[in-house]
Specification:
The protein has 336 residues and is an alpha/beta fold. The chain contains ten helices and ten strands.
């Protein structure tokens, strides 16, 4: 079965063709990073306009790269939630029109479920149930993957996501957008023990995250040093910040796995590309005898292959949509 996936939840216009939920036949991504970099972050209105311009050529290229036509596609999967509402609407509207015109089933896909599914494309033997940490610029979740289409969130951020903390601290350090990758690079030249940073906790919610206080602490540290004329070791601050975030994510995920009795742990989302997050969680899983799964680097960020993959499993479970499908800016994974 061939699924055409479409992803436009933020600033990447992406399309992909995936066979039987596990094999990437083609994957095309048009990124807007350079344009948004001048503003220090994603500008929703600009993102939506670029999706309108890019979606047709991106979908055409995905089909051409796969050597297929719309006639060969069995269904169209699209991200409908969560994300920037204007950006989502472009993808959803295009996918609905395409599905109607080609007389193909339309499959709605939750963006976070898509990130989780990226592991199926990297590990053909992975099957639910397992526990997954999804960390990105907009999300930080610990989710039980009960089946290919059922989830239960056991931990989530109460304020900033891990990726948001990386990016905002990076901007304060003078790094360009997106800052997470620059924090990672700088950390290689710094001392992770140079700065003792706070590890915020959420009272009564053992597995929930809070990164707002950590972000504020780092930004205040940078500003206070600047006001006093003290030169700051940005490499060591980057290393300390990265190690702190990686340790927080790892500790809560491993504790949740122990508490819930999971022996399989997966990582997904944009922050899964971070070297410390990957290394810390891999080491902790090995020490606890857990199987550890992580997507290949090309599947960590937003892409349409993961949407097509999850679309395959949604379709097999009978999850389809009609012309009433709408984009939703905020939607819990538990409400699917």
């Amino acid at each position: 079965m061939l699924i055409l996936g479409i992803e436009t939840s933020c600033d990447e216009t992406a399309a992909a063709v995936v066979r039987d939920g596990r094999e990437i036949v083609s994957s095309v991504i048009s990124t807007q990073i350079e344009e948004h970099r001048k503003y220090g972050g994603v500008v929703p209105e600009i993102a939506s306009r670029r999706h309108c311009e890019n979606i047709l050529p991106v979908v055409k290229k995905a089909l051409a790269d796969a050597g297929v036509t719309l006639h060969d596609i069995d269904a169209v999967a699209v991200t409908y939630a969560p994300g920037l509402i204007g950006a989502l609407l472009v993808g959803v509207s295009f996918a609905k029109g395409l599905a109607v015109a080609a007389n193909k089933p339309l499959i709605p896909v939750h963006h976070i479920a898509g990130h989780i599914a990226s592991n199926y494309l990297s590990h053909t033997t992975l099957e639910p149930p397992y526990l997954c940490l999804v960390a990105s610029g907009g999300h930080s979740h610990i989710a039980e993957v009960l089946s290919y289409t059922e989830y239960r969130t056991v931990g989530r951020t109460r304020d900033d996501a891990a990726g948001e903390c990386f990016d905002k601290c990076a901007r304060a350090m003078g790094f360009p957008y997106p800052g997470g990758v620059h924090i990672d690079k700088a950390s290689k030249f710094g001392d992770p023990s140079a700065f003792k940073l706070p590890r915020p906790k959420v009272a009564g919610s053992e597995f929930d995250f809070s990164f707002s206080g950590l972000k504020t602490n780092v930004i205040n540290l940078i500003h206070n040093n600047a006001q006093k004329g003290i030169e700051l070791d940005c490499n060591s601050l980057a290393a300390s910040l990265q190690a702190t975030i990686a340790d927080i994510l790892t500790e809560k995920t491993v504790n949740a796995a122990k508490f819930l009795g999971y022996k399989k742990v997966a990582l997904a989302g944009g922050v899964s590309a971070n070297s410390d997050v990957r290394a810390f969680l891999a080491k902790a899983c090995a020490e606890n005898g857990f199987e550890f799964y992580i997507p290949q680097m090309s599947l960590c960020g937003d892409n349409a292959a993961m949407i097509a993959c999850q679309g395959y499993y949604n379709y097999k479970a009978g999850i389809t949509a009609d012309s009433d499908l709408n984009a939703i800016a905020t939607l819990s994974l538990d409400k699917l």
